[in-house]
Amino acid sequence: MNWFYRIYHFALKCIVIFIGIPNPKLHQGKQGLSDAIAALGLQKGDPVLVVTDQALLKLNLHQVVEDALKQAGLVSHYYADILPNPTVENVENGLAAYQQHQCKGIISLGGGSVLDSGKLIGARAVKPNKRVTQLKGLFKVLKRLPPNIAIPTTAGTGSETTVAAVVNDPARNSKYAATDFCLVPHHAVLLPELTTSMPANITATTAIDALTHAIEALLSINCLKFSRERALNACRAIFEYLPKAQQDPFDVTARGQLLLASHYAGQAFTRTSVGYVHAISHQLSARYGTPHGLANAVLLMPVLTWYGDRINQQLALIARHCGLTSLDYPVERQADDLLNHIQALLHDLQIQTRLNEVLPHDAAHLAELALKEAHPDYPVPHFMDPYACQRIIKEIATAS
Ligand SMILES: [Fe+2]
C-alpha cells in the first residue's frame, strides 16, 4: 500500500503547488483590528455577527471588538454559545442569528473551536441549502464566504489561517472536518493582550500544539519552501518566547510572538498536513477527552524518538535554525541537541510524560484508528506499523 500512499501524497503536493492555498491578510494590534474591520468593505450601520463563547464574554475580552465595531459605525450581534467541542447545533444556531439580524459579515473571537464554528457559520450562510454534514470532506463549499475576521485568543491551533473546520455531530456520534480553501478567513487579527489571562498550563500546552504543527510540517515529505520557512520561524519563536510568557504572563511581546508562531505553524501545516502525533492524539481526545494540546505534548517525544535516525536531517535543520546546536557538530549530534532541548522544555513546563486516563488494553484499537487517520492523509516521512503505534500508546499509559 505504501506506493499508493505516496501517489496520494504527490497529488496533495500538486494541489498545493498548482492551485495554492490562500493566506488571510494578517493584522496585529488594535489598529490592525480597525484596519481589518475597514477592509471588510461594509457600510455604516451594517450588522455584523460576533461569534464567541461565554467564557470570553465573562472575561470581557469581546470589548475590544465591540469598541472597534462601534468606532467603524457597524452594529454588533452576538452568538456566544459555542461549546469547547462545537456541535452542528452551534453552527445552525449561529446561522440562525446571522440570518435573523441580516448580518453582512462575521467576526470570530476565541480559541480554535470558536474560529472553526465561525468558518462553518459563514459556509452555511453561502450554502443555505446544504446541511453541515454535507460540508464534510474536501471542497464541499467552493464559494466565497461573507466578509470575515478571525481573532485567536489562544496561541496554538492556528485556525485563523487554516483550511479546515472541525465540528461534532452528536446525532451521528461523530466528529468530522470540512476542508476547503474558501474556509481560510479573509483577515486574521493578532491581539496579544487577549492571551495574557490564559493560565500557565494552557499557555504551555497550546504552544506545544503549535510546536507540534511546525515539527510535523517540517517532517512531511510535502514540506516546500514556504512551509519550511514558516515552520522554522515558528519553532524558533516558541523556543525563545514560551519560557518568557511562562515567567511573566503579561509579557505582551512574548504573547505576541507566540500568537505569530501559532499563525506561522498553522500556515505550514495547512499545506503539509500533520503526522503521527496528531493521528494518535486525536484518538486519545475522542476516547478519553484528553485536551488536544496536552495529548500532543505527551506524544511528541515518543513519536520523534520512534522515528530515530530517519529524521535526523529535519531535526538538525530545526536545531541549527533555532541556535540550539553548533554548526560544527555532525547531523546526528545536532538532531540530539534538538530532542534534548524539547525534553528539557517539556520538563520545565511541568508537562506530564504519561496520561492516567489511557488504558493499555485500548492500545490495539486506538492504534488501528490512529493509523486509519494517518494513512493515506498524512505525508509522513516513514510509515508506522500497528505494533509500533501500540507500543507508543502503551508507553504513555500510566499502567503500562
Ligand atoms: Fe494540533
Automatic annotation (TrEMBL):
Keyword Repressor set for record: no
Ranges of residues in domain Alcohol dehydrogenase iron-type/glycerol dehydrogenase GldA: 25-190
GO molecular-function terms, A-Z: alcohol dehydrogenase (NAD+) activity; metal ion binding
Gene3D superfamilies membership: 3.40.50.1970, Dehydroquinate synthase-like - alpha domain (1.20.1090.10)
Keywords, sorted A to Z: NAD, Oxidoreductase
Domain (Fe-containing alcohol dehydrogenase-like C-terminal): residue spans on this chain: 203-374
The protein's required cofactors: Fe cation
Family matches, as Pfam families: ADH_Fe_C, Fe-ADH
InterPro entries named in the record: ADH_Fe/GldA (IPR001670), ADH_Fe_C (IPR056798), ADH_Fe_CS (IPR018211), Alcohol_dehydrogenase_Fe (IPR039697)
Keyword Heme attributed: no
Protein family (similarity comment): Belongs to the iron-containing alcohol dehydrogenase family.
Protein name as it appears in the record: Alcohol dehydrogenase
Organism: Pseudoalteromonas piscicida
